[in-house]
Amino acid sequence: MTKPPRYQRRRRSPPGTPPGTLTADPDAGETRVRAIRFNAEGVSEDDSLAPCAPGSILWLNIDGLADTDLLQKIGTSFGLHPLALEDVVNVHQRPKAEEYEAHQFIVLRMPEPGQDGLHTEQVSIFLGDGFVITVQEHAGDVFDPVRTRLRNPLGQMRKRGADYLCYALVDAAIDAYFPVLEALGEKLEQLEDTVVFDPDAVDMGDIHVLKRELMSIRSAILPMRDVVATLQREETQRFSDNTRLYLRDCQDHAVQLIETIQTYREIATGLVDILLSSQSNRANEVMQVLTLIATIFIPLTFIVGVYGMNFDDMPELHWRYGYPAVMGIMGLIAVVLAIWFYRKGWLGRR
Amino acid sequence: MTKPPRYQRRRRSPPGTPPGTLTADPDAGETRVRAIRFNAEGVSEDDSLAPCAPGSILWLNIDGLADTDLLQKIGTSFGLHPLALEDVVNVHQRPKAEEYEAHQFIVLRMPEPGQDGLHTEQVSIFLGDGFVITVQEHAGDVFDPVRTRLRNPLGQMRKRGADYLCYALVDAAIDAYFPVLEALGEKLEQLEDTVVFDPDAVDMGDIHVLKRELMSIRSAILPMRDVVATLQREETQRFSDNTRLYLRDCQDHAVQLIETIQTYREIATGLVDILLSSQSNRANEVMQVLTLIATIFIPLTFIVGVYGMNFDDMPELHWRYGYPAVMGIMGLIAVVLAIWFYRKGWLGRR
Amino acid sequence: MTKPPRYQRRRRSPPGTPPGTLTADPDAGETRVRAIRFNAEGVSEDDSLAPCAPGSILWLNIDGLADTDLLQKIGTSFGLHPLALEDVVNVHQRPKAEEYEAHQFIVLRMPEPGQDGLHTEQVSIFLGDGFVITVQEHAGDVFDPVRTRLRNPLGQMRKRGADYLCYALVDAAIDAYFPVLEALGEKLEQLEDTVVFDPDAVDMGDIHVLKRELMSIRSAILPMRDVVATLQREETQRFSDNTRLYLRDCQDHAVQLIETIQTYREIATGLVDILLSSQSNRANEVMQVLTLIATIFIPLTFIVGVYGMNFDDMPELHWRYGYPAVMGIMGLIAVVLAIWFYRKGWLGRR
Amino acid sequence: MTKPPRYQRRRRSPPGTPPGTLTADPDAGETRVRAIRFNAEGVSEDDSLAPCAPGSILWLNIDGLADTDLLQKIGTSFGLHPLALEDVVNVHQRPKAEEYEAHQFIVLRMPEPGQDGLHTEQVSIFLGDGFVITVQEHAGDVFDPVRTRLRNPLGQMRKRGADYLCYALVDAAIDAYFPVLEALGEKLEQLEDTVVFDPDAVDMGDIHVLKRELMSIRSAILPMRDVVATLQREETQRFSDNTRLYLRDCQDHAVQLIETIQTYREIATGLVDILLSSQSNRANEVMQVLTLIATIFIPLTFIVGVYGMNFDDMPELHWRYGYPAVMGIMGLIAVVLAIWFYRKGWLGRR
Amino acid sequence: MTKPPRYQRRRRSPPGTPPGTLTADPDAGETRVRAIRFNAEGVSEDDSLAPCAPGSILWLNIDGLADTDLLQKIGTSFGLHPLALEDVVNVHQRPKAEEYEAHQFIVLRMPEPGQDGLHTEQVSIFLGDGFVITVQEHAGDVFDPVRTRLRNPLGQMRKRGADYLCYALVDAAIDAYFPVLEALGEKLEQLEDTVVFDPDAVDMGDIHVLKRELMSIRSAILPMRDVVATLQREETQRFSDNTRLYLRDCQDHAVQLIETIQTYREIATGLVDILLSSQSNRANEVMQVLTLIATIFIPLTFIVGVYGMNFDDMPELHWRYGYPAVMGIMGLIAVVLAIWFYRKGWLGRR
Lengths: 350, 350, 350, 350, 350
Hints:
The structure is a homopentamer of 350-residue chains.
Chain A: E1 32-38, E2 43-46, E3 57-63, H1 68-78, H2 82-89, E4 96-99, E5 104-112, E6 119-128, E7 131-136, H3 144-151, H4 162-175, H5 177-197, H6 204-232, H7 241-306, H8 315-318, H9 322-343
Parallel strand pairs in A: 3-7
Antiparallel strand pairs in A: 1-2, 1-3, 4-5, 5-6, 6-7
Helix pairs in contact in A: 4-7, 5-6, 5-7, 6-7, 7-9
């Protein structure tokens, strides 16, 4: 049986640390930086931290959180708020969108493939004037499609602003849940077929693990829907009206994910009922066989016992047809009981 | 037992495709176009894509999504937004109503008859100035009543605008759920009667499949109620006050569908309890029979065993009335036990 | 066992009929009209359809929906909206309050006594300038108290306007649920006593039927609460401030009904748990008796079997005290087992 | 077992009675009136119905509803609204706060000690200019602490207005639920201990009765929270800003009561699961004992039966060591089975 | 098994006490006062109650509630509202934030380690002009990190106002729940592993106690989230915009706690299903063994009984191959039954 996934702990600064202090997690991955600079004319990629020329847009992607000094330096140079920076380092934040004076701060969670079940990984996004900074816990390939679109000279993406890039990244993070959820859906379909057609092969623990994984995705996706809704609302001035149309599309996807999860959960809950019912059915079937055999043979065994008694004076024993008569009577009793059971429906049903 | 229906997957563009790109589903049906042009004077039908003369209204109905080039062409010629067009092609969208500058975009889902259970099919509707465009996954007959009303020279429909046609189409899509739900209601009634009067003939899996189908309809209808509510609200300027009265009626129908589904679900859930209880009752009944037989005969069998022992010195065996005395005592024991069971209510109840 | 009530189907116009067309249900009752005209001075009753003199108020009560031509004629003469008229004829509408330019339209549902369980019947009310029109599916006596009050020369009712008459009718329709719900409450109390004191006499199906009836009332009452709330709100100008005070009272009654239904449902759900538990208890009791008897006698039967063996060389058989010794040992075993069972609490508890 | 409490019926005027008519309940208690007049200088108590001198405040307390003529007279003399007066007489109203032009009308419910379980009693409060009128179903002592505070010459209460007196009475009514709820909490704690440590001594019906009592309190307290919230809101001009601070405190108490009830209900629901589980455990234990004994002795009994057969030619019977050999083999079988059971954990666990 | 935690009772003033009177709980801890005065330049600590010089901020921390006279004196000297002071003394208040004219009043609950399970302790905070007063039930170390930060000459905290100190204290109180919840999470993980891999070692009562502890934390945390939301809202003028950013962070933590509790509760509820299912499985397994043995041996025992009968005329007994023939037939029957059981899957599955 699959082991249920471990709970993810929220990482916190040690007690007494003032808010805004960056403390590296000893398990954090090595920090690597990739910068992409682009405008309508072209794209260049390097690993410099220098800001962009006006009219160009910088996308700074940081993988791994070990080097807090570097993060601090980037924070100072781009005017990132200390509270936001702290949330970047202390992973296992709840997805959220917070507006600071100098930039929009977005925390998302992406599904992370792992051999011990499903985990989610934090992605932090800063959207400022002319720059987008993304920070991932580990190097991942979820943003690769966005890079491909940027490198494509015919694509529309280079012509749009930093807000559109930010939308494309949020969209990529949300879309990453579809294959994960579809895999769970297939697992659920298999489980459902097995429960309906071969209930003994199902373990209640398997349903439990599936529900746990659905809960884990849901707890990541639910706040992400609110994040996209916040970004799309009128007050935030960082997103153009046109990009807002795209964010609306993105929110549709999040809602669809949540509804699918909800449906899967209800189905999984229904499976528990079927399983309990089929276990109970099986117990009844076993009990019927026992009752059948015992009810027929126990009286007969009593009768043969009677004629095994050693009383001096048992006239039946000396009758000529005593033996066949007793055997006949016992046969009759068996037939009558069998007919009675048949009428009660205990023979051959199911 | 019915196999539970398969989950419907959302179709998505391949990763890295920019939003607004149309990619045909390899399974998509062949594209066919039917145009109906009408005004208060008359109706003409053809398959031309040309826009309408002013004062007339064009209803363009497209079945099948294979020909994305044609869709793209229609999109350009009527000014349809690329994001909306993409949602038309990538079916399994959630029902929604989105307002674009040039047109209102509506996604609905219609019930689709299928031999492997209940599915829903996407219908996309564009309502612009003087035109309504509907796109269905497959050719269906859900809009036939609307066509009949348009062809009727005495009907009021030709005299109304495109917004009223749009209402009539939405209303037809929602009304298509009533027969489907009534069929489920009849199934549920049968199931209910069987559960109450002949519980052994019921399979928990049948209740599960029914609940699954109710969940499937509900997930289509719930957002459609919100769609109609959105259209009916004051902000949307595409619908006249008079058409809004009709939309209110349409929303009533959606609410009624949802409440019926909710009621059916609660009933189905209640059936599970009855079924489990009746299974448990049956097990008790079987157990009582076993206990009755065993409890009466096991002590008697012991007694006859005693007098089957081969001890040299068992005086009872040589008494003249030993045999009838033992038989009498055993008869007495049986009667006493039977009376005890009767008093406990284990004989003949139910 | 009571048969669960049949589901009520929504009546719809045949597909392709434009909204606003009246199609009579073949099962509809014969149409009868009663007109009451009153002002502060007096009351007159006839069956004319003529409008009232100014300063007087007309209450037109129509029972039975078979004569759609007459309904159409009344609709035209009082300026009733076609959509509202269609809702009058297509019964099984959800209760609702809709304001049209010329009149307020209210749909309510009244409990209808029937031998095959509880049904609800549609009542439609039109409140216009100087007139109230009520339409019932069948002739009923729910409005009789209102008639009595109108005929009473000392009553205040004649002095008030059409809005107060409309309130009195709504109030009568809501009050009609109290005796129905009290009857259900008594049924539930009986069921509760039986479950607690004599669980074997209870059938899970009875609880199911009761829950079904509660759901049926609730689905009628819930929207009626919203109807009264809508009427009471400030925007609707058809009700005077004074009548609004009375509507507030009326809403209190609806809320009280809903809370009572909710409470009854929770109690009924709790009964299912008790019933399942008592069935399980009973099974345990039966099993204990079986185990007691079998566990005591099976070893003893083995022992007597041993001394029934026919080996040549069994010295115990020839001992002088062999027989009484074996009987004594078996008695001892029985006593020891009985003590053990007593200590485990399997004897005489409950 | 405690009998579950009876449902409380709403008292209604007979059908056809116009709203605002007072009809005495035949079971209503005798009417007694106590008047307290006070201002900052002093307090006087009598049973006169005369209004107060300006600058003084009158608290009229009425116990028992039998004398409707007196109530009508008081209503007329203080300008109480007929609808409110009717609600006073027709007890079993839902708690509510209604503002009339001449006075604020408040309906509350107080817990009422009774030997057949927990009931609630209606208290009606009128707050007008310079007077507070309270009407209880029966004479009770819930308002005694308020009287004590009024009689205390050093207390602040005399110096405050009628609104503060009204707050004090509402507060006393809400506070009366704390001891009731604490008694239920103690009952629940006892039940919980019994379920966990001695499940056989618990009856599912006891948990049911407790849940019923919690539901009964909740249905009284839930609307009382809304009453206090309504009084505290800005629109009502009858309460000074200072008294509103006290009402906020009072609302806190109501919320705390509701949360406690909710917690108790969840705990009680959890107890049902434990109880069902422990019943199931007990059945398993009984079954294990039966299986153990039967599985060991049934094969042995078969073997001794074999050597009890009377065939002429059974060589084992004549072997010298036949008897001890068979006894030894049977001993071996018993030991092997015992080891097998031990390994399966059926011996001595729990 | 762990004993379920005792319910915490709300402490109330004796009936008849006017609101705002301080009555010491006989069990209250000894009162101790610690004052910290600080400004950007430095920090001083003493136990004087004197107010601060302008430009400095006073943090008065009071542990233990026995000395109500002292509390009254502090209340008078700092202008604390009598109702708020009463809430300080009558512990077991629900967390809340109330604004009074002279100060903001906050009630929180902190987890309190105890050997008889988890309890929460009340912390009251007053935030006024230039002072923060905190009152705890017992001396605790939850605020120590804040003290450490104040004493640190390099920290930013001294430079900020009383509102930031207040935020830091609220944040410390909320953060104190993380380790408590993580400990519960570990308990739950262990329980989960045991349920899935060794269900017999689990007691339903353990799950119950865990759920009880989660409910206890939740009832403290849920209102604390609302408290922080209230403080963060625009209306309250006591918190600067900058401090509000920090409060937003603090609210995130509360939401995360609540979601984690919710997830844990759902998991615990799922465990109950698995446990019941595995108990049922185990019962089935036991029943199968019994049925197997009984079904095979009961017919065989009947057969040997037949040939143990003492009829004079039983020809089989005198046949030469009678004995081996009967033994062979019985062997055949056993094999046929075993094959039948194998086909039914009762042998060796699981």
